[in-house]
Design a protein that fits this description.
The protein is an alpha+beta fold. Strand 5 and strand 6 form a beta hairpin. The longest helix is centred in the first third of the chain and has 17 residues.
Length: 153
Amino acid sequence: MDARLVTAAHRVLLALNRAGVCYALCGGMAVAAHGIGRATDDIDILLASEDLAAASAALAADGWLTTSEAITFPDGITLHRRLLFEGKGHHILDLLIPQAGSGWLDQRERSDFAGAIAYVLGRPALIAMKRLAGRPQDLADIARLEELGDGRT
């Protein structure tokens, strides 16, 4: 995984932890946090809807910019995109708000990610979320996550 993206994710986690919001790392970084090597080019954070304002303020204070209006997908997940510009490049952060009652954030696990306390989406919830998305990379991630068996998180 790109070291600059990992550093950006570390900054995001620190900002969210300081803000005291309920979140879970999801997407490719969560797959990696579960022990599966996986390249990714963005940071995905599952966030409780009631924490969006506090998270947005904490991230804005760290330089993350809102780039567009929110998008609600057919599966009911709402995406709020943020960008962080560094030098000639940028990082993408997607804040994902699940449908009420999904219970996914109840399945987050405390972990360490790049030296920061991180809450990572638990494997069953991560698999469920990826199954909803259904893209080829998500299906490949599901297969690899299911290969881990019951003994790993």
